[in-house]
Amino acid sequence: MSRPEHIAPPEFFYNDEEAGKYNSNTRIQSIQAEMTERAIELLDPEGPSLLLDIGCGSGISTSIAESYGHVAVGMDISPSMLSVALESQEVEGDMLLADMGNGVPFRAGTFDGVISISAIQWLLNADKTCNVPQRRLNRFFETLYSSMRRGGRAVMQYYPESDRSQQMILDTAKKCGFAGGMVVDHPESKRQKKFYLILQAGGMRTLNTSEMSIEDEKVVAKKRKLKRKHDMSTREYIVHKKDLNRKRGRLSVPKDSKYSGRRRKAAF
């Protein structure tokens, strides 16, 4: 199957028809939701944060970030996708129509963290004579670094086309001031393999992606989920999980009622 970035520029590829798929296809919604949750786990924010969602598309990732208690600002190049986000998703933060290849248009130190799902591979797309991949990468990472507070992290899931393109992205990010590396989930599976670029904009937080395996990450994520569960009442946790499953497009989620989370009487 052809890669979308080989078919047309993103503002044309993600037209009304393609945006509609994101709003109606439960499989797409489920995959996007799963990758967003993984990105937030790797981001490891220190409490409620102001996040930038680059390539927010139809708003699935933005709304999930907000469901975790963060304030999120979405940014995308496709008017059709942003229209779906504003109409169909319960997104509370602002949405910005912008091309990430032209830079991140926010003042210095604005964001505590950044997430991006299935977007930054488009920076390597030379679909116009004015779109020089290396120039677009430089502009993107320079302005991204500036827009983040020192010590803030960015986690960007994407699909590298080759080892060369993957190295090009990482090298450019480091030249622009970031520290970081790659985490690859399910490296043995061609179908489930996912790449996450993890960057840190200076600061004192420890970031060591090279020594953290997927097994270690699963343990950390499990402990974090348990902590989040213990911070909620039983009813709050149940309602939270139902909301996440609805955002993933699952149709069999029970409706909320006054009995949700109520302890059952013992049967004799």
Explained architecture:
The protein is α/β, with parallel strands linked by helices and 268 residues long. It has one domain: Rossmann fold. 40% of the residues lie in helices and 17% in strands. It has 9 helices and 7 strands. The protein has helices at residues 10-13, 16-24, 26-43, 60-67, 79-88, 133-147, 163-175, 214-230, 234-247, and strands at 50-54, 71-76, 95-97, 111-117, 148-158, 179-185, 194-200. The model is unreliable at 211-215 (pLDDT under 50).
Brief synopsis:
With 268 residues, the chain is of the alpha/beta class. It is built from nine helices and seven strands, in the order H-H-H-E-H-E-H-E-E-H-E-H-E-E-H-H. The chain has a seven-stranded mixed sheet, with helices on both faces.
CATH superfamily: Vaccinia Virus protein VP39
Please describe the biggest sheet, giving its number of strands, its sense, and whether it closes into a barrel: 7 strands, mixed
Report the strand count.
7
CATH topology assignment: Rossmann fold
Globally, the shape reads: globular
Calculate the terminal CA-CA distance, rounded to whole Å.
Answer: 59 Å
What is the ordering of alpha helices and beta strands? HHHEHEHEEHEHEEHH
CATH architecture: 3-Layer(aba) Sandwich
Mean pLDDT value: 83
How many separate domains?
1
Number of helices: 9
Question: Radius of gyration, Cα only, in angstroms?
Answer: 19 Å
Estimate the strand proportion.
Answer: 15-25%
The level 1 CATH classification is Alpha Beta
Q: Classify the secondary structure makeup into a structural class.
A: alpha/beta
Low-confidence stretches: 211-215
The helicity comes to 40-55%
Which strands sit side by side, in order, in the main sheet?
A: 3-2-1-4-5-7-6
